[in-house]
TrEMBL record:
This is Acid phosphatase. Gene3D superfamilies: 3.60.21.10. It comes from Polarella glacialis. Keywords: Hydrolase, Signal. It comes from the Eukaryota. Coiled coil: none annotated. One of its GO terms (molecular function) is hydrolase activity.
Length: 97
């Protein structure tokens, strides 16, 4: 079985808007408790795929734009436990943390 969460805001984001503290405090514990498979979000205008002990996190806020609009400005704000698997942002490059 699979269980997903979805919201406008991401839990984690290495892009311009950064992480969402309210979701870190309130949603993340529930994701762990109920063994959520993954979380889908938008808001930041980039594309990211991350994984941590709460499941995978997909941020797709760039719509149909080929190049992301924002830079990967907050990569260092991601906790060490969050593995950034892929991103597409303003510099139009792929990266693994």
């Amino acid at each position: 079985d699979y269980l997903f969460t979805a919201a406008h805001y991401p839990v984690w984001s290495g892009c311009s808007h950064g992480n969402t503290q309210n979701l870190i405090d309130n949603l993340l514990p529930l994701m762990r408790k109920y063994s959520v498979t993954g979380h889908f979000a938008g808001h930041d205008h980039c594309l990211e795929h991350m994984e941590d002990d709460s499941g995978f996190h997909v941020l797709s806020g760039a719509g149909s734009v080929r190049d992301g609009w924002y830079k990967l400005e907050n990569k260092e704000a991601l906790p060490a436990s969050v593995k950034l698997k892929f991103y597409l942002a303003d510099d139009n490059s792929q990266h693994s943390k």
